[in-house]
Amino acid sequence: MESSNVNIECDNILTWFEDVSKNASSVQTQILCKILKQNNEVEYLKKWFGSYNVQDMDACALESLFTSVVPLASHADFDPFIQRIALSLSSGTTEGRQKFVAFTRHSAQTTLQIFTLAAATRSKIYPTKEGGRILEFIYSSNQYKTKGGLTVGTATTHYYASEEFKIKQEKTKLFNCSPYQVISSGDYKQTTYCHLLLGLFFSNEVEFISSAFVYGIVQAFCTLEELWREICNDIRYGTLSSKIKLPKMREGVLSIISSNSNPFLASKLEATCKELELVDWFGLVPKLWPNAKYIYSIMTGSMLPYLKKVRHYAKGVPLVSGDYGSTESWIGVNVDPILPPENVTFAVVPTFSYFEFIPLYRHKQDFSFVHDDFMEDKPIPLSKVQIGQEYEIVLTTFTGLYRYRLGDVVEVTGFHNGTPKLNFICRRKLILTINVDKNTEKDLQIVVEKGSQVLNKAKTELVDFTSYANMSNSNQPGFYVIFWEIKGEAEDKVLEACCTEIDAAFVDHGYVVSRKTNSIGPLKLCIVEKGTFKKILDHFVANGGALGQFKTPRCTNNPMLLEILNACTIKTFCSNAYDSTQP
Ligand code: AMP
């Protein structure tokens, strides 16, 4: 039965989005005016606005003044100011270090707004049942107080603790399987166990499965593959494993299951898990959650490598890719939930922040030593972007960032009314570069995918990967190192072929020429032992990160991570891709 309430709410937010997207350009001018008038007195702006009387200016004049006097900036420009105020941590896994960014009531409200909008858009295509449940693999990190008494934590941590998180459940009439005590524990292993336990306990009511980034779902299902017997046991007797030590979490879970022991459900689940084990857990989702309509999570960008695994678990249950945002600001909503994650675009929500776009042009066969892969033009407003062009996003937010370079590269693929639809391309920063070679995360993804096709032929699977540009020995040419964790046994000659395939698959002209002239040495493929990437996750979490925000760094020169990777390397292969090439 569809809820009429849900539909009223849905219609409201959809109508609102149609309105603001039709008038995106003027909405943007008004939003900037609002931000600047609200924050007129702040130290950072005063520096640039000097004697201008911002309060009395009209919105259009203010927009042109702003973009002419306030410079483009990066996080480093704001850091000294941010250190003095309320803080929230970005995941830092894409940048390599955590940044402090302000999180306010407004941030929680925009989060509620985009989640409600996305839910309304999805429910048109995949209607869900009123009062049903969401199996949501979400995690808060630990929060702490600054000297000034302000709370620090990840953006998701703040959101799950906010009123808005409760309102979202009421508004969408879908409720989490896990109570807040589970989400907020700060211990991701214990939380994962309880999410799975309650997800299975409510298995017939689950309408969809979700996580912030799809890595969260993959890692939870890997845990299920290991611990299903123990989980079923808890369902049978209404007990809770001794693995769960946190008193509040025990209390929260036991209050749901202890008076509802369910031997019938436990036996059914056990029989299903036994069958699934025989087929390498193919179709786990529809078998265990027969009413799940879809899987909803961010599957684009650095999450693309996990798609194959999720599809294996989903066996045809639709994958709906989540929306696009950052700790700094939400950006766009997936308005075509029916599209596969590979083709998903995000319609910019013009009320969230003031957006500018730096046009980017790729260097063609450039041999300069500039450590950047793009040439750039002057930033333009949202209303001026063009289809087919790539841009870096610049944000001016309600939380004190002015003309802040986000570092993400997007391509405009079309428009939803007057607002652009963006395809996420990659993080701007080059990740693999030794001299004239320039490779982005996307380039690395493509070559690793090619290598893993060789692996798949040998019935072995790539679990996760990262890379490193080794320049440690100044007497020898630098070279790329790729670390692979694999599932299954592959012969050495297969892995050697994978290594050569990866090396040969880099198309960047700088790399190809450098390899031919041996100014970059042969690529090395290091196979790491099972569980290595879990250790990296543990390291991230131990340093205050939240699982929900974790993105495996696709390239690292972090000494701690390299120490883990090197210590866990069990085999090393060297490419012979360019062996026969004459300089
Ligand atoms: P965080 O630093 O944890 O706030 O992560 C924000 C970053 O995650 C963004 O700047 C993007 O690089 C990436 N990201 C967020 N949403 C998406 C998405 N839907 N698709 C691809 N990448 C995304």
Automatic annotation (TrEMBL):
Pfam families membership: GH3, GH3_C, GH3_M
GH3 C-terminal domain segment(s): 443-559
Phosphoprotein listed as a keyword: no
Any one Gene Ontology cellular component term annotated for this protein: cytoplasm
Limits of the GH3 middle domain: 347-427
UniProtKB keywords: Ligase
Top-rank lineage group of the source organism: Eukaryota
One term of GO molecular function: acid-amino acid ligase activity
The family this protein is said to belong to: Belongs to the IAA-amido conjugating enzyme family.
Protein known as: Indole-3-acetic acid-amido synthetase GH3.10
UniProt source species: Cicer arietinum (Chickpea)
Primary gene name: LOC101501729
